[in-house]
Design brief:
Layout: E1 3-7, E2 10-12, E3 18-25, E4 34-39, E5 45-51, E6 58-60, E7 68-73, E8 78-83, E9 92-98, E10 112-116
Parallel strand pairs: 2-10
Antiparallel strand pairs: 1-3, 3-8, 4-5, 4-9, 5-6, 7-8, 9-10
């Protein structure tokens, strides 16, 4: 079965950085487009970033463009999200998910919490 396990979250100060990881199993990771999404307390799920199966193309929400970078290592079945210049409004639970296209958020993992203060 599909399993996505996020890690790397934590508490950081405004302007700080974090690197999130997502370990994938149970499906052909190298053949799957992937997304990162987040959900702040009391709000809906917000798509954040997208990467094609090869890693050749990426897309970002306007709210994170220029600050976040999505990447992947298909040999390790792992997806990454580098978060730089963090703002308080970036505080949320972050999820990785399979995706069909940029903006799509499919089946998600359990998430990793990012808190910026």
């Amino acid at each position: 079965h599909v399993q996505l396990v996020e890690s790397g979250g934590g508490s950081v100060q405004t302007g700080g950085s974090l690197r999130l990881s997502c370990a994938a199993s149970g499906f052909v990771f190298s053949g799957s487009h992937m997304s990162w999404a987040r959900q702040a307390p009391g709000k809906g799920v917000e798509w954040v970033a997208y990467i094609t199966s090869s890693g050749m193309r990426t897309a970002y929400a306007d709210s994170v463009k220029g600050r976040f970078t999505v990447s992947r290592d298909n040999a390790k079945n792992t997806l990454y999200l580098q978060l730089n210049s963090l703002k308080t409004e970036d505080t949320a639970m972050y999820y990785c998910a399979r995706a069909r296209w940029a903006g799509d958020v499919g089946e998600r993992g359990q998430g990793t919490q990012v808190t910026v203060s």
